[in-house]
Write a structure and sequence with these properties.
11% helix
């Protein structure tokens, strides 16, 4: 793999709006429902281009939370 290919791989979005995600075990916040399943609402702006934060709306609730991509696991891609 060439250096520019590695750089491009870092820029690929891991999640997109509408993706169904699971919040990984080990993330503790009182507001997170027991099922830990939500939908990506949007990608949040960050100061660093190589990492992403996403706003997640939890199934069966009316609130959203922001998570770093390392705490999210893709369950089903949006079409």
């Amino acid at each position: 793999m060439f250096a520019d290919e590695r750089y491009k791989a870092l820029l690929v979005e891991k999640f997109k709006t509408g993706d169904l995600v699971l919040i990984r075990d080990g993330v503790h916040q009182d507001e997170i429902p027991d099922h830990r399943v939500g939908l990506i609402v949007r990608e949040c702006e960050t100061s660093k281009g190589y990492t992403s934060f996403y706003e997640v709306a939890f199934i069966g609730t009316d609130f959203t939370m922001k998570f770093h991509e390392m705490f999210l696991e893709l369950k089903n891609e949006s079409r």
